[in-house]
Design a protein that fits this description.
Distance between the termini: 39 Å
Number of domains: 2
CATH topology of the largest domain: Fructose-1,6-Bisphosphatase, Chain A, domain 1
Largest sheet: 7 strands, mixed
CATH class of the largest domain: Alpha Beta
Structural class: alpha+beta
CATH architecture of the largest domain: 2-Layer Sandwich
Strand order of the largest sheet: 3-4-5-6-7-8-9
Length: 268
Amino acid sequence: MQDLESLLTLAKTAAAEGGKILMRYFSDGVETRNKASSGGAAYDLVSDADLESEQEIAKRLKAGTPSYELLGEETLAGAVDAEHLWIIDPLDGTNNYLHGLPHFAVSIAYYHLGRPKVGVVYNPARDDWYTAVAGGGAYHNGQPAAVSQAATLGEALIGCGFYYDRGEMMRRTLATIGAMFEAKIHGIRRFGTAALDLCQVGCGQFDAFFEYQLAPWDFGAGRLFVEEAGGRVTTARGGELPIGKTSMIASNGSLHEAIQAITVAHHP
Protein backbone atom coordinates (compact mmCIF):
# COMPACT_ATOMS: atom_id res chain seq x y z
CA MET A 1 0.00 0.00 0.00
CA GLN A 2 1.24 3.48 -0.83
CA ASP A 3 1.52 5.94 2.04
CA LEU A 4 -1.65 7.93 2.70
CA GLU A 5 -0.19 11.34 1.86
CA SER A 6 0.79 10.15 -1.63
CA LEU A 7 -2.70 8.71 -2.09
CA LEU A 8 -4.17 12.04 -0.98
CA THR A 9 -2.05 13.83 -3.58
CA LEU A 10 -3.20 11.40 -6.26
CA ALA A 11 -6.86 11.83 -5.25
CA LYS A 12 -6.55 15.62 -5.35
CA THR A 13 -4.98 15.51 -8.80
CA ALA A 14 -7.75 13.25 -10.09
CA ALA A 15 -10.44 15.44 -8.49
CA ALA A 16 -8.96 18.55 -10.06
CA GLU A 17 -9.04 16.96 -13.52
CA GLY A 18 -12.58 15.76 -13.02
CA GLY A 19 -13.53 19.23 -11.85
CA LYS A 20 -12.11 20.82 -15.00
CA ILE A 21 -14.40 18.64 -17.09
CA LEU A 22 -17.42 19.55 -14.97
CA MET A 23 -16.69 23.25 -15.30
CA ARG A 24 -16.30 23.02 -19.07
CA TYR A 25 -19.76 21.51 -19.39
CA PHE A 26 -21.15 23.85 -16.71
CA SER A 27 -20.05 26.78 -18.85
CA ASP A 28 -20.87 25.41 -22.30
CA GLY A 29 -24.02 23.40 -21.54
CA VAL A 30 -24.63 19.68 -21.23
CA GLU A 31 -27.06 17.12 -22.54
CA THR A 32 -28.94 15.26 -19.82
CA ARG A 33 -30.73 11.91 -19.63
CA ASN A 34 -32.67 10.21 -16.88
CA LYS A 35 -31.90 6.79 -15.45
CA ALA A 36 -35.42 5.40 -15.94
CA SER A 37 -34.23 3.05 -18.67
CA SER A 38 -31.90 1.34 -16.16
CA GLY A 39 -34.43 1.12 -13.37
CA GLY A 40 -33.98 4.59 -11.90
CA ALA A 41 -36.48 7.37 -11.45
CA ALA A 42 -37.32 9.74 -14.30
CA TYR A 43 -35.96 12.62 -12.19
CA ASP A 44 -32.69 10.76 -11.38
CA LEU A 45 -30.47 12.43 -13.97
CA VAL A 46 -27.13 11.71 -15.58
CA SER A 47 -25.14 13.74 -18.08
CA ASP A 48 -22.13 13.50 -20.33
CA ALA A 49 -20.31 15.55 -17.69
CA ASP A 50 -20.76 12.79 -15.06
CA LEU A 51 -19.52 10.13 -17.43
CA GLU A 52 -16.52 12.00 -18.82
CA SER A 53 -15.47 13.15 -15.35
CA GLU A 54 -15.65 9.60 -14.00
CA GLN A 55 -13.61 8.25 -16.90
CA GLU A 56 -10.88 10.84 -16.39
CA ILE A 57 -10.76 10.28 -12.63
CA ALA A 58 -10.61 6.52 -13.13
CA LYS A 59 -7.75 6.88 -15.64
CA ARG A 60 -5.74 8.99 -13.21
CA LEU A 61 -6.30 6.68 -10.26
CA LYS A 62 -5.54 3.55 -12.29
CA ALA A 63 -2.30 5.06 -13.52
CA GLY A 64 -1.18 5.74 -9.97
CA THR A 65 -2.55 2.59 -8.31
CA PRO A 66 -3.03 -0.03 -11.05
CA SER A 67 -3.95 -2.88 -8.69
CA TYR A 68 -6.62 -0.99 -6.73
CA GLU A 69 -10.35 -1.56 -7.33
CA LEU A 70 -12.58 1.35 -8.41
CA LEU A 71 -16.22 1.76 -7.39
CA GLY A 72 -18.16 4.64 -8.93
CA GLU A 73 -21.66 5.92 -9.44
CA GLU A 74 -21.85 5.62 -13.21
CA THR A 75 -19.73 2.82 -14.71
CA LEU A 76 -17.23 1.53 -12.12
CA ALA A 77 -18.16 -1.72 -10.36
CA GLY A 78 -15.15 -2.51 -8.17
CA ALA A 79 -15.56 -5.13 -5.44
CA VAL A 80 -16.58 -3.53 -2.15
CA ASP A 81 -14.61 -6.15 -0.19
CA ALA A 82 -11.34 -5.40 -2.00
CA GLU A 83 -8.30 -4.69 0.17
CA HIS A 84 -7.66 -1.45 -1.73
CA LEU A 85 -10.74 0.40 -3.00
CA TRP A 86 -11.28 3.83 -4.53
CA ILE A 87 -14.88 5.11 -4.22
CA ILE A 88 -15.73 7.84 -6.72
CA ASP A 89 -18.60 10.23 -7.30
CA PRO A 90 -17.68 12.24 -10.41
CA LEU A 91 -20.55 14.69 -9.86
CA ASP A 92 -22.46 14.82 -6.59
CA GLY A 93 -25.32 17.27 -6.84
CA THR A 94 -26.34 16.58 -10.43
CA ASN A 95 -29.67 18.42 -10.16
CA ASN A 96 -27.94 21.53 -8.79
CA TYR A 97 -25.39 21.30 -11.59
CA LEU A 98 -27.97 20.95 -14.34
CA HIS A 99 -29.99 23.88 -13.00
CA GLY A 100 -26.96 26.15 -12.92
CA LEU A 101 -26.46 26.15 -9.15
CA PRO A 102 -22.73 26.21 -8.28
CA HIS A 103 -23.13 23.78 -5.38
CA PHE A 104 -21.84 20.39 -6.55
CA ALA A 105 -18.73 18.32 -6.01
CA VAL A 106 -16.32 15.63 -7.02
CA SER A 107 -15.88 13.07 -4.22
CA ILE A 108 -13.02 10.55 -4.05
CA ALA A 109 -12.27 8.23 -1.14
CA TYR A 110 -9.71 5.52 -0.57
CA TYR A 111 -10.73 2.57 1.64
CA HIS A 112 -8.33 -0.04 3.00
CA LEU A 113 -9.90 -3.28 4.23
CA GLY A 114 -13.29 -1.61 4.38
CA ARG A 115 -12.20 1.46 6.33
CA PRO A 116 -11.86 5.03 4.98
CA LYS A 117 -8.29 6.27 4.91
CA VAL A 118 -8.26 9.20 2.47
CA GLY A 119 -11.05 11.55 1.45
CA VAL A 120 -11.27 14.45 -1.00
CA VAL A 121 -14.37 16.51 -1.75
CA TYR A 122 -13.92 19.31 -4.28
CA ASN A 123 -16.37 21.96 -5.48
CA PRO A 124 -14.75 23.24 -8.69
CA ALA A 125 -17.25 26.10 -9.06
CA ARG A 126 -15.88 27.60 -5.83
CA ASP A 127 -12.38 26.08 -5.94
CA ASP A 128 -13.32 24.73 -2.52
CA TRP A 129 -11.34 21.78 -1.13
CA TYR A 130 -12.15 19.43 1.76
CA THR A 131 -9.52 16.80 2.55
CA ALA A 132 -9.00 14.21 5.26
CA VAL A 133 -6.52 11.46 6.06
CA ALA A 134 -7.19 8.85 8.74
CA GLY A 135 -5.41 9.95 11.89
CA GLY A 136 -4.32 13.18 10.26
CA GLY A 137 -7.32 15.45 10.70
CA ALA A 138 -9.68 17.24 8.34
CA TYR A 139 -8.84 20.38 6.37
CA HIS A 140 -10.89 22.96 4.49
CA ASN A 141 -8.74 24.78 1.94
CA GLY A 142 -5.68 23.85 3.97
CA GLN A 143 -7.04 25.04 7.32
CA PRO A 144 -7.98 22.61 10.13
CA ALA A 145 -11.70 21.85 10.34
CA ALA A 146 -13.66 21.01 13.48
CA VAL A 147 -17.27 20.14 14.27
CA SER A 148 -19.52 22.51 16.23
CA GLN A 149 -19.88 22.67 19.98
CA ALA A 150 -23.70 22.62 20.01
CA ALA A 151 -24.86 20.56 22.99
CA THR A 152 -28.65 20.52 22.53
CA LEU A 153 -31.11 20.33 19.66
CA GLY A 154 -32.25 23.80 20.63
CA GLU A 155 -28.90 25.09 19.35
CA ALA A 156 -28.80 23.04 16.16
CA LEU A 157 -28.97 23.72 12.44
CA ILE A 158 -29.61 20.39 10.70
CA GLY A 159 -28.87 19.38 7.11
CA CYS A 160 -30.94 16.72 5.39
CA GLY A 161 -31.31 14.94 2.09
CA PHE A 162 -34.13 13.28 0.16
CA TYR A 163 -33.64 10.07 -1.78
CA TYR A 164 -35.24 9.86 -5.24
CA ASP A 165 -38.15 7.85 -3.84
CA ARG A 166 -41.18 10.15 -3.61
CA GLY A 167 -43.41 7.74 -1.76
CA GLU A 168 -43.09 6.35 1.74
CA MET A 169 -39.44 7.34 2.20
CA MET A 170 -40.25 10.96 1.36
CA ARG A 171 -43.14 10.96 3.84
CA ARG A 172 -40.92 9.50 6.57
CA THR A 173 -38.25 12.10 5.88
CA LEU A 174 -40.82 14.88 6.17
CA ALA A 175 -42.08 13.37 9.42
CA THR A 176 -38.52 13.36 10.77
CA ILE A 177 -38.10 17.01 9.82
CA GLY A 178 -41.36 17.84 11.57
CA ALA A 179 -40.23 16.08 14.74
CA MET A 180 -36.94 17.99 14.65
CA PHE A 181 -38.77 21.29 14.43
CA GLU A 182 -40.88 20.21 17.41
CA ALA A 183 -37.58 19.69 19.26
CA LYS A 184 -36.93 23.44 18.71
CA ILE A 185 -33.96 23.17 16.35
CA HIS A 186 -32.82 26.41 14.74
CA GLY A 187 -33.65 25.19 11.26
CA ILE A 188 -33.37 22.66 8.43
CA ARG A 189 -31.33 23.06 5.25
CA ARG A 190 -31.48 20.87 2.15
CA PHE A 191 -28.74 21.75 -0.35
CA GLY A 192 -28.85 18.62 -2.50
CA THR A 193 -25.20 17.53 -2.37
CA ALA A 194 -24.54 14.96 0.36
CA ALA A 195 -20.76 15.10 0.00
CA LEU A 196 -20.77 18.84 0.72
CA ASP A 197 -23.45 18.47 3.41
CA LEU A 198 -21.13 16.14 5.30
CA CYS A 199 -18.24 18.56 4.92
CA GLN A 200 -20.46 21.30 6.36
CA VAL A 201 -20.94 19.11 9.44
CA GLY A 202 -17.16 18.70 9.67
CA CYS A 203 -16.69 22.46 9.40
CA GLY A 204 -19.24 23.18 12.13
CA GLN A 205 -21.71 24.88 9.78
CA PHE A 206 -24.27 22.11 10.28
CA ASP A 207 -24.53 20.52 13.70
CA ALA A 208 -25.85 17.32 12.14
CA PHE A 209 -27.07 15.81 8.87
CA PHE A 210 -29.38 12.91 8.10
CA GLU A 211 -30.68 11.05 5.07
CA TYR A 212 -32.53 7.76 4.82
CA GLN A 213 -30.77 6.40 1.74
CA LEU A 214 -27.32 7.16 0.40
CA ALA A 215 -24.87 5.21 -1.76
CA PRO A 216 -21.20 4.75 -0.82
CA TRP A 217 -20.01 7.25 -3.43
CA ASP A 218 -22.27 9.87 -1.79
CA PHE A 219 -20.59 9.56 1.61
CA GLY A 220 -17.27 7.78 1.03
CA ALA A 221 -15.07 10.88 1.46
CA GLY A 222 -17.41 13.09 3.49
CA ARG A 223 -17.79 10.44 6.17
CA LEU A 224 -14.05 10.49 6.85
CA PHE A 225 -14.03 14.30 6.84
CA VAL A 226 -16.65 14.38 9.62
CA GLU A 227 -14.85 11.77 11.70
CA GLU A 228 -11.46 13.44 11.36
CA ALA A 229 -13.05 16.79 12.31
CA GLY A 230 -14.17 15.23 15.60
CA GLY A 231 -17.68 14.15 14.66
CA ARG A 232 -19.56 10.87 14.54
CA VAL A 233 -21.17 9.02 11.62
CA THR A 234 -23.53 6.02 11.82
CA THR A 235 -26.60 4.65 10.13
CA ALA A 236 -29.86 6.33 11.12
CA ARG A 237 -30.39 3.45 13.56
CA GLY A 238 -26.93 3.92 15.10
CA GLY A 239 -25.11 1.08 13.36
CA GLU A 240 -21.79 0.87 11.55
CA LEU A 241 -21.90 2.15 7.97
CA PRO A 242 -21.64 -0.50 5.25
CA ILE A 243 -20.02 0.08 1.88
CA GLY A 244 -23.43 -0.03 0.30
CA LYS A 245 -26.78 1.73 0.31
CA THR A 246 -27.55 2.95 3.80
CA SER A 247 -29.24 5.55 5.94
CA MET A 248 -27.00 8.00 7.75
CA ILE A 249 -26.59 10.39 10.62
CA ALA A 250 -23.51 12.60 10.79
CA SER A 251 -23.17 14.86 13.80
CA ASN A 252 -20.82 16.76 16.05
CA GLY A 253 -21.04 13.79 18.41
CA SER A 254 -22.78 15.61 21.25
CA LEU A 255 -26.12 15.60 19.44
CA HIS A 256 -25.92 12.10 18.00
CA GLU A 257 -28.22 10.25 20.38
CA ALA A 258 -30.82 13.01 20.29
CA ILE A 259 -30.85 12.99 16.47
CA GLN A 260 -30.89 9.20 16.39
CA ALA A 261 -33.93 9.01 18.67
CA ILE A 262 -35.86 10.99 16.06
CA THR A 263 -34.55 9.23 12.97
CA VAL A 264 -35.27 5.80 14.50
CA ALA A 265 -38.82 6.79 15.39
CA HIS A 266 -39.63 7.67 11.78
CA HIS A 267 -37.28 5.28 9.95
CA PRO A 268 -38.70 3.84 6.70
